[in-house]
Hints:
- By secondary structure, the chain is an alpha/beta fold.
- It is built from 19 helices and 7 strands.
- The strands form 2 sheets. The chain has a 5-stranded parallel β-sheet with strand order 2-3-1-4-7, sandwiched between helices.
- Helix 8 crosses helix 9.
- It is globular and about 60 Å long.
Amino acid sequence: MELDCKLQSAYIDRVNDFRNHVFEEINKKDQYRLWSVKTLRNVKEAIVISSASRSGSSLLFSLLKKVPQLYSLSGESVPFYKLNGLSSDIFPSDEIPKEVMEKRKYTFGLSRDFLSDFSSGGDPGDIFRDRKLFSQYIEDLTLRFPLQWPQVNFSFGFLKKSIMRAFDIYANNHQIFCKETFYLELLSQLRREYKTINPYYYDIPVTLVKRKFPGLKIPLAPPSRILTIEEPPFILLSPCRKIDEMDLLGKSLLLKSSADCYRMGFIKALLPNARIKIIYLTRNPAASINGLYDGWLHRGFFSHNLKCSLANANNSLSKSLNIRGYSGRHEWGRWWWKYDLPFGWLDYTQSPLEEVCAFQWVSANRALQEYLNKSKKQYLQVKHENIIKNLESRKKEINKILSFIGIRRSAVNQLNLSRLPVIQATSAPKAYRWKKRINILAPLISNPVIANMSFQLGYKRDRIEEWL
């Protein structure tokens, strides 16, 4: 157990060392990249999508990323938090202690990690004719893979050559860039040297992976026994344009991370000069709790290895997880926690899985409401149900968001809202999927704490037909 704790730190150090080397190589070509001349103090406007886990934030984030007046990270900010000593594998929960925030030791690292990842719009197809975009894409992929596979001792040279070889093969056979298809070729190249890399951990349809890797088994365990920096399903990077100094001045940063429900004060400290607007994305408790339940039983969403935390717990009953319906399925279920880690999680280490999921939903919404009430920050509540209900409802909701942000509503025409992407899903989207577990969800929905929170968010029991 002590060895596992040391390995967590060793993996973080190795990933940081590798990324430092990549940054040094980039500096040799160009010493004036944005992250070397600016910091997060230069961000002027920020839009934060904040929600409980499995409330649709990944979908909304993917839609709004297309707005030309916004720039964003490739995915969630959590991997960069972990790289810079802000991991809940270290802290008692996803909340960042006040004394850690005040020391600000994370400032340089997070500025570099964020600014090097910021991008805005662009056509991925340009990669076939734009050598600068292609070069930046190689850099992005080289920086990202160690976040997804911290246990792999990557060779910078081999990784770069594999990316170039995969793209040459892909370009010879395709005229349109499709990131899923490209990634399958790239992963095939990488597996020649790194057999532990498993394509099933990526946000790629299982049918496509099976076709490319017919003999490969679908995994159940976490991708690393010790640590995840980016939690699976791993994101797929698209070729995209990096922002410049004018974008920092004239555009708004879009951020999204479920853990940020507990870290809104930290975001303000991270972006001290930014005017921050908050999109409070909500979803009814039945669908959200059911989505969490599905995710806990899925091959992805491994967030926290709690072996070290549990070993140091004062409660002798909580030396391992014994979450009924989860922990008994596999050995690793005694240590690995999925999704956000609210304060008070130790009280749920011996609970049924549905109660853990309900605890996560209530905790995230409560933390965000407390912050909004205390800070008086400008925010807009958006219901996930209004985004997925139908096209007319979707356009209305996105228009409301654009007006709140301060962007012309005509921008909605650029977002191709007629077809919703499937992102970070455990199975194909389906209305009222929660009804398959109505027997275990009904008592939870009737619980006074959840019922009161539902009512506050506008989800009434007598209109349960709207709980998509």
